[in-house]
Specification:
125 residues; mainly alpha; 73% helix; elongated
Length: 125
Amino acid sequence: MDQGNLLQMLLLRGLGTTSLVADRLRYVSQEWVSSGRLDPNHASALMEDVLKALRGENPELEQQAERQLERNRDDLLADLGLARQREVDELRGRLDRLERQLRQRGGGWSEAAPQGVDDSDLPPD
């Protein structure tokens, strides 16, 4: 499936879900007001708060959703066996330090290979 099409489908479903939640909340709050379980002023405040959250106007909720999204992304990457950028950067740093140590020992790759590493495993200069 085309990723652009998938993204479009997800956005449309999200918009539909948001609309459905807002409509259902209006209905329920009207029912509660008519049955006397909810003050009309509280109903409008409740609607406004929920709609703000749905529109992304609630920074705390937005931050919580962002943290959850990051956790989900990290879990997905781990499940796929892919490294995160931080891990790749750490490995690059370690590789740079090893290359510096080899140069300081007076030679290129063919000289003084680290212990446990066969010269054939090392890339050419």
